[in-house]
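DM from R.C. (forwarded with permission)

"hey, sorry to bug you on a friday — could you get me a structure for this? deadline for the figure draft is monday and I only need the backbone to look sensible"
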Amino acid sequence: MPGPRGRGVMTLRRIRRDPLRFFASLPRRYGPVARLRLGPVRLFAVNDPALVTRVLVGDADGYKKGMALERARAILGDGLLTSEGDLHRRQLRLIGPALSPRRLTHHEPAMLREVARVDARWRDGEPIDIGAEMNRLTLATVVATLLGGSLTTDDAERIHVALTGVVRHFDWLVTHPLGVHRLRIPTPRARRLLASRDALRDVVDRVISDRAPRIGGDGDLLATLIAARDESGHMDAALLRDEVLTLMLAGHETTANWLTFTWIALAGNPDVGARMRAELDRELGGRTVTLADRDLLPYTVAVLEEALRLYPPAWGIGRRALAPHEMDGVFLPRGALVSACPYVMHREPALWDAPERFDPDRWLDGRTAGLPRGAFFPFSDGPRKCIGEHFARAEALLALATLARRWELRRETDSPVQLDAKVTLRPGGPVVMRPRRRT
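My reply, with the result:
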């Protein structure tokens, strides 16, 4: 059966050293399905659009979430990202309306307020770490839209500190060979992660407790979630807390990484940036951008899509087989892990013209119109597709359009940005940029 030979520990070391390079090498050498043996774990890397769609959509009930999300349950509880089966389906029904496209205009003022704070904070020519700036922006946005109706300044600061602590150690938890068992060893890192998790839970529990008796007028996402009900009733307090934690953690870092890579790509392609800003100037004039302007800004939207293609924050998606499967002539036993890698698929030469080039025009000139399902899946697909996709797209468009009209960002160096692929794809360190105010 095709796949890397050798002892599992050696393959694991190669994956840890450079996972993007490793998984990108598999389809060239082994075809659409590559088998890897990692000790007792059997991993099958799927690199074909039809097979990806089969795993994520057609045969979705035959798989459950992968190892990373299984381990994330220690922090996120039974939120939508980690739940399975009937609970996951129920939570989709309850939470879906709160994040539907028609609700986005309700959150637009809060999104724009947070972008305006970034705009006011930047100084002409003063260096910034663009990754830190975008994380700060998206964290403030998700807190404002989730809990903004009643959050005190002190609680907002506590959430920021605790969530930052969770994010700092989250990768370590989900990628460590011992997984959640590592939390039972009271090392300083384990204690810090658990303390941050507990602090975050405490604040959210208190906010929910204060809000529930007087729900009705605040209008943020929490109000919508508290009011949501189905034939079984409302979410209980513990599950509501888990959903809020999931939306905060999953809802800020991925969008921050998306925006960070967008700024990096624009800095490296000044002609693209100039064309995008010309569109913004022409279509918006001096007024504030709104979500209703999306159709007026096709090139700006294409810039975001192209950054999402080349640098998908959810760079690898895992599933675990609940029963034996056959895939392209390869037998997958029950319990096998299946990996589908957007980063690799989005750069497949058979699907994408000049796949390594940052080329927003590919989204406008018809080259992507005939792509098969499974060729582009930055938010996954099927019943576990990211429920926050529309929210993320709205937030990214408002942030980029607002800031790019006022600022041009230039890097301090021309050296390539190193990629760090752990739970999400992010730059391998600070990326220093200098904002230049447009005249």
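R.C.: lifesaver. The chain has a mean pLDDT of 89.
me: no worries. The radius of gyration is 22 Å.
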